[in-house]
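Aim 2, interim progress: modelling of the pyridoxal-5'-phosphate-bound target.
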Amino acid sequence: MQIPFIDLKSQYAHIADDVQAAIKTVLDHGKYLMGPEVTQLEQELAQYTGAKHVITCSSGTDALVMALMALDIGPGDAVITTPFTFFATVEAISLLGATPIFADIEAHSYLIDPVEIEKAIKNCPSHLTVKAIMPVDLFGQSCDYEEINAIAKKHGLHCIADAAQSFGSTYKGKTCGNLSDITATSFYPSKPLSCYGDGGAVFLNDDELATQLRSIRIHGQSFESKYVNQRIGLTARLDTIQAAILLQKLPLLDDELSKRRQFATYYDQKLGSLVERPLINPERVSAWAHYSILVDDPEALCEHLTKHSIPFARYYPVPMHLQAAMTHLGHEKGAFPVSEITADRILSLPLHPYMTHEQIDYIVDKVEQFMVSR
Ligand SMILES: *Cc1c(COP(=O)(O)O)cnc(C)c1O
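Predicted structure of the complex, ligand included:
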């Protein structure tokens, strides 16, 4: 049985003609950057999320960097975030010279723990000023935004949601992109809504910040004249071709999200109490970027899965405070125990909208075989 970890080829087969026609349209009109497809995509994404402004950009990482730049966050500032995430979250903060301050995750959801955020704010070293909270919607489930926004408000902080994995998720009936001050997402090929290369977007309701972000995206240009640069910016546009591709994929998203949910539920039923996994809060609908489980010896399970040609990923075996690039922060093992134990035990199984129940039966069968042999 051939099981892809994420199946972009099957998705492409459904939309190949439309995608090729959309790319050809761009090649013909020749507006390779900031073409009409970019504007149309931003309008459709605004409609989908309910966010007033959508600024597409070159990647999820750049979306985070742009959000931090628009808020003037830099040296001497601290941003509270989770140690259990993809490196880009802390990379963006560090790139601007700000300091990531970690707050451990909840043991049941693997998402940043609001109680730990409060502690991190209280214990922030006096030479730093906490400016923002950057929660991460890991594996597709949104964080507890009501709680986190209340903490942000109480302390006068911004909340920048790293929603790279959660586009299409909902929280208490509200859509991702409209749950905090600023939301950043990614259209990297393995994300729930993806393009055929790198891409991302920032979502927000604030007019002034939106203007800043549009300027930052293009070298800090002024809108009166492209020869006037008002600030230091980036080259962070989304290619028109990628926008054209996303316009073809967006109409598939809701159906794909519902299939991801169905397959995740099927995994849940089949796995029963065999392995631990993150709990999804009943008031949140996950975008199911990844289906992850916890086992005591993930490396041994990886070997077993490889033997049976089942692909897997380890999202993420090294928490951020223990990353080589973060040693200057001076954290030791044991500093964020919930993240560490989760990282030690985590493993993600194949999940995408184009799988079959038979494939899940086969995968669960092999996981079960491994578990009973222990
Ligand atoms: C993928 C990802 C990013 C970065 O997105 P890119 O488009 O690859 O730059 C940031 N944060 C998280 C949590 C991610 O999963």
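The radius of gyration is 21 Å. The pocket of pyridoxal-5'-phosphate is lined by residues 59-61, 85-86, 88-89, 136, 162, 164-165, 186, 188, 198, 200 (CB under 6 Å).
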